[in-house]
Design goal:
1 helix; about 20% helix; single chain; mainly alpha; about 50 residues
Amino acid sequence: MIVGAFGERTPETLSQHQIPLKHLTDILSGANVHLIVVGDAGSLYVDGALTK
């Protein structure tokens, strides 16, 4: 199982999500595994203030 919790919030850094995802797809290419991407740790907030 592979778990990643990469999180960036600013518009200038959002594109950095592509870096670890590309790395994972590269190293898992051809392997008999499944990669499931469900979001990052920062997406667990349920309020606009990002406190809950």
